[in-house]
Amino acid sequence: MREVAGKWRPLGPALLLPPLLLGVAKSARWAGHRYTPDWQSLDSRPLPAWFDEAKFGVFVHWGVFSVPAWGSEWFWWHWQGEGLPQYRRFMSENYPPGFSYADFGPQFTARFFEPDKWADLFQAAGAKYVVFTTKHHEGFTNWPSPVSWNWNSKDVGPHRDLVGELGAAVRNRNLRYGLYHSLLEWFHPLYQLDKKNGFKTQNFVNVKTMPELYHLVNTYKPDLIWSDGEWESPDAYWNSTGFLSWLYNDSPVKAKVVVNDRWGKNSSCHHGGYYNCQDKFKPQHLLGHKWEMCTSIDKTSWGYRRDMSMADITSESEIIWELVQTVSLGGNYLLNIGPTKDGLIPPIFQERLLSIGRWLNVNGEAIYASKPWRVQFEKNSSVWYTSQELAVYAIFLRWPENGILNLVSPITTTTTKITMLGIQGDLKWVERQEEGLLISLPLLLPSALPVGSAWTVKLRGVE
């Protein structure tokens, strides 16, 4: 990750068909379609439906940076790229003279990595997809890349195919599997040569980046490719459009694969299957393109770090509120954790993931496969809306002091019924022209409520 301190073409009359027939019409429209290696063609590809329906995923940053586990996953760059004094001091105080970054490799053991336990945790968290780091900017690959030259998890450290093992476990639980891949590598000599040449040569791309991407797709058949490391050079240097046209036309995942927008310094937030724009991207309004907010439980790092404190940890309510707001505005929420060098997920990360799972067990009906409503939030921003078929969901982030929930936007009918997810029975309500819809919430002790934060009222029979 960077450190932080496809649209649909109109289908004409087919849009008037019932949903089931509309899906058939879309499939027929695109059957046999060939995408050319240019953004106009690539951006016309419909986004596979599974991604929008999933809403919530877990991000995993794991690599050799998990060994020093200090500062952030950009440890190598801060130490020897920028030469920051605090990183130099950390190395001099904790490691012998002459210790190189490559010497961390054998210490990345993954000794306690149990992919089934990880997958169980992600499933219990309510995630519908998992995005795993295959290679970060340090260049170390978590699979036996044929062009990694002894800098991979099969030859060094774990002596295991971490990408393959986790993928099998995740898919055994019917979760979608995404692969994060950095286009650049900070200190690779061929990348440094291309950079020196003003990216007018493509030695690194032809020898390293593209062979890796093709190998990842053909070997692991990912549902999602989460590209990163694009910001120093344009997509023409990376051959991004050529790769994506192959991915959409001829790859083994051409019908299901989803990609983000980080394919060149000119493409982020402009091109790609869905938009990330920048880390922790959080728009304040409904966008015309599918997007995803990626963020981390540790507010200052994506990889595990030993100097993490509780003040750096995002609270349960903050995470749930971000999830709700993201989905209300049509986005997906991708929440990151960083395992230790041994392959253990720190308990605080487990606790946060499990708390989301408990919340989704009650409120998932308002999240999964939902669509943005005509109004996304009330003016006070404490009530956010989603919709699904004939139901509208009002998710309120704060419990009103008088036990009366005031909703301004819904318009009731003679058939309106209001319930609360996790609570049996209908709620009493009254509509007042000047005050809006007033709903009497259940008179319960906080301990008796279905969840401790962000409650959902379901409205049926509203306009």
Automatic annotation (TrEMBL):
GO terms for molecular function: alpha-L-fucosidase activity. Residues 1-27 form the signal peptide. Residues 26-365 form the Glycoside hydrolase family 29 N-terminal domain. The keyword Cytoplasm does not apply. It catalyses: an alpha-L-fucoside + H2O = L-fucose + an alcohol; a neolactoside IV(2)-alpha-Fuc-nLc4Cer(d18:0) + H2O = a neolactoside nLc4Cer(d18:0) + L-fucose; a neolactoside IV(2)-alpha-Fuc-nLc4Cer(d18:1(4E)) + H2O = a neolactoside nLc4Cer(d18:1(4E)) + L-fucose. GO terms for biological process: fucose metabolic process; glycoside catabolic process; lipid metabolic process. Its main location: other. The keyword Glycoprotein applies. Residues 380-459 form the Alpha-L-fucosidase C-terminal domain. It is an enzyme of class 3 (hydrolase). It is found in: Lysosome. One of its GO terms (cellular component) is lysosome. InterPro entries: FUC_metazoa-typ, Fucosidase_C, GH, Glyco_hydro_29, Glyco_hydro_29_CS, Glyco_hydro_29_N, Glyco_hydro_b. Its EC number is 3.2.1.51. Keywords: Glycoprotein, Glycosidase, Hydrolase, Lipid metabolism, Lysosome, Signal. The record marks C294 as: May be important for catalysis. Belongs to the glycosyl hydrolase 29 family. Homotetramer. Alpha-L-fucosidase is responsible for hydrolyzing the alpha-1,6-linked fucose joined to the reducing-end N-acetylglucosamine of the carbohydrate moieties of glycoproteins. This is Alpha-L-fucosidase. The gene is FUCA1.
